[in-house]
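Any chance you'd type out a single protein's sequence alongside its tokenized fold?
>
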Amino acid sequence: MLHNSADAVTNFLFGSLAMLALVFYSVSVFRTNRQKHLRTWPPVRTVFWMLGVLFSASAVIGPIAEDSHENFVMHMIGHVFLGMLGPLLLALAAPMTLLLRVLPVQHARRVSRLLKSRLASFYTHPIVASILNVGGLWLLYTTDLYMLMQHHLWLHVLIHIHVFVAGYLFTISLLYIDPVSRRFSYVYRTIIFIVALAGHGILSKYIYAYPPNGVPIEQAQVGAMLMYYGGDAVDVVIIILLFRKWFQATRPRGERFTTQLPSLSR
């Protein structure tokens, strides 16, 4: 198992990244709110960012991270926080939109070109993001990779970074909150989402019946249930947001107009 010295390294690494994320977002909100020609940045997005950083960091720093080395249940709580809930909250904070608002025009155009590049388009494709997310979890829990990450610091760090990044890419590939290079139809995204949900649910049941090497059966069963039901809770939120946008996009213009301006419909 990883020793206390290794925990100190990960605490410093991930703790520094979390602090930088909080400072970056806070400073950006302050700067954009000073620009009178722009609308005030919605406070709820700032709350989403703070909570997203908090949940993501709690999976790799502190009691949950320390206990997860020997307790699969705690590890799975961290998985839900780092790979699902945290990325969803961070995506809802629209960080790329905020970045484009505070950057000088020349730099903002460069970032915009990067977001529209082939590389960005590849990794934010719903199918690619789903494979990275769900496929990565299958690889982690059905091979010796889970056991190896408990003994090698570099692998431990790499896997946690992958879980977070894959979770974030998966979320933004379904919910278009920030600018994207290519927009896929709601039907297309919904079908891929359903397939990804099935893959995640089947993996949970597989872990319940066939625990990863070195994991006691009791911990595996509780952890699998946390993965299944915890994942469902986050997925329900994504479904609601996706279908809400779908409904708004397909609602007739006249209906939307009278709904938004009821006093003018008399």
Remarks:
- Residues 4-104+121-247 form one domain.
- Confidence is low (pLDDT under 50) at residues 257-266.
- The first helix runs from residue 4 to 33.
